[in-house]
Amino acid sequence: MTPAEWAGLFVAVFTLIGGFATATRWLVKHYLYELKPNAGTSLKDSVNRLEARLDEIMLILVQLEINSQKKSRKIAKEVNE
Q1: pLDDT at 23
Q2: How far apart are the first and last CA of the chain?
Q3: Do 66 and 74 touch, CB atoms closer than 8 A?
Q4: Nearest CA to 48 among 60, 36, 59, 58?
Q5: Where exactly are the structural domains of the chain?
Q6: CA angle 66–68–74, rounded 5-degree value
Q7: What pTM value is reported for the model?
Q8: pLDDT at site 42
Q9: How much of the chain is helix, strand and coil, in % rounded to 5?
Q10: Vertex 62: Cα angle to 60 and 63 (nearest 5)
Q11: What mean pLDDT is predicted for residues 59-65?
Q12: Is the pLDDT of residue 81 over 90?
């Protein structure tokens, strides 16, 4: 191979490495941006909304369970009397 061909090969290899590094950097920046809250459209905001809804559902289920236990005790008490 001539020196010009070697130079072309090195330029091609370094261009590919540079392109890969740039693409990786862009992906990392993009994914990190999704993990920051930004007034409602990021992945972090969605997770926060889901967690809040899950907390509300758990409170409702606990209240229903407590009410169910109270009714069961009341019925058992009436039966025993």
Answers
A1: 97
A2: 104
A3: no
A4: 36
A5: 1-34, 40-81
A6: 105
A7: 0.52
A8: 84
A9: 85, 0, 15
A10: 65
A11: 94
A12: no
Q: Please write the tens of the pLDDT for every residue from 5-59.
A: 999 999 999 999 999 999 999 999 988 888 888 887 888 888 999 999 999 999 9
| Burial class of residue 55, CB neighbours in 10 A (0-12, 13-18, 19+) | exposed
- Contact status, residue 35 vs residue 43, Cβ threshold 8 Å: yes
Tell how many helices (H) and how many strands (E) occur in the chain: 2, 0
Q: What are 20's two structure tokens?
A: 């890969």
Residue type at position 5:
E
Task: Please report, as a single letter, which amino acid is at residue 20.
Answer: F
